[in-house]
Design a protein that fits this description.
This protein has 8 helices and no strands. The protein is an all-alpha fold and 136 residues long.
Length: 136
Amino acid sequence: MNRQRLQHTSARIKEHLALIHSIKDDCKNKFNTDPIYRGALLHYLYLMADTCITLAEQAIRFKQLRHPQSYHEAFDILGESGILDSEFAYSFAAIAGFRNFLAHDYEKIEAQIICNDVLSKLDEVEKFLKQIEQNC
């Protein structure tokens, strides 16, 4: 694992974030009325979450840390090793469950959850990227 691969994955997350930011306006209205909008938003959220997990796993390999047994544990390992702030790592690990939810239960997602709760937490992804970039 090399730093260039980490940088490439980080750049992909930033691309997903930029796309999400570019379409998030008027989310509540469009999410329920426009299936193409809904599909695009959920797709980019999934890609972002999945790529965050990939970056966590790459950082673990780059730093030669123990192998995680789950997506969630990857963030715990980064917190334990000081790559991520430990409290932040614990809370950000929820992105693994969010990724799985998007992959398997996307039909049950409500506009309120995505448009208010999820979109208001995009800065956490940016915080994750910053800590990875600073410590790897």
